């Protein structure tokens, strides 16, 4: 299977191949179970805007204990490694087990393991971040660009929803935010 197809399959209901002209559709749950589906009021002091591109690298941030931005960066780097291997240990600790995105990874892991595309992993660049925090939840809006040598870059506009589990930030789900 082509690497672009594998990445699109991993994202499942969220992502599409870069050549597609239709926006991704979303079927994942938007809010973690511990959070009400009504919006929490977020004061302007809780909103952080980062306009410079943030290269996502394998970070030394311990799973979930860094800033929301660091956790998203590390989770995206883990996703890039998972996309080429199917190894759930890559995303474990960064994505909430039992959450919609982790369940999608579980569904795709067997196929990826049986037909891995191999190294190098996807690198992810995160741009134009807007972070909103409320009690027990954070939403990170931005542009996420998956890059792999020899392939067209894949660009998505997403909202990454994080939740606190055992005192640590983990990604609950990813939602299309193209408009």
Rg over CA atoms: 15 Å
Helix content: 10-25%
Q: Main beta sheet: strand number and arrangement?
A: 6 strands, antiparallel
Number of domains: 1
- Contiguous low-pLDDT stretches (5 residues minimum) are 1-63
How many helical elements? 3
Class based on secondary structure composition and strand pairing: alpha+beta
What's the overall average pLDDT, rounded?
73
CATH class reads Alpha Beta
CATH third-tier fold name: Nuclear Transport Factor 2, Chain: A
Strand content: 25-35%
Rough shape?
globular
Instruction: Tally the beta strands.
Output: 6
C-alpha end-to-end distance = 30 Å
What is the string of SSEs from the N terminus onward? HEEHHEEEE
CATH architecture: Roll
Question: How would you characterize this protein structure?
Answer:
This protein has 179 residues and is an alpha+beta fold. The protein has one domain (3-23, 44-176): Nuclear Transport Factor 2, Chain: A, CATH 3.10.450. 23% of the residues lie in helices and 28% in strands. The chain has 3 helices and 6 strands. It has helices at residues 3-11, 68-85, 100-114, and strands spanning 47-50, 54-56, 123-134, 137-147, 154-165, 168-176. Strands 1, 2, 3, 4, 5 and 6 form a 6-stranded antiparallel beta sheet that branches. Helix 1 packs antiparallel against helix 3 and helix 2 (68-85) runs parallel beside helix 3. The radius of gyration is 15 Å and the shape is globular. It starts with a helix and ends with a strand.
Write the topology of this structure.
Layout: H1 3-11, E1 47-50, E2 54-56, H2 68-85, H3 100-114, E3 123-134, E4 137-147, E5 154-165, E6 168-176
Antiparallel strand pairs: 1-3, 2-3, 3-4, 4-5, 5-6
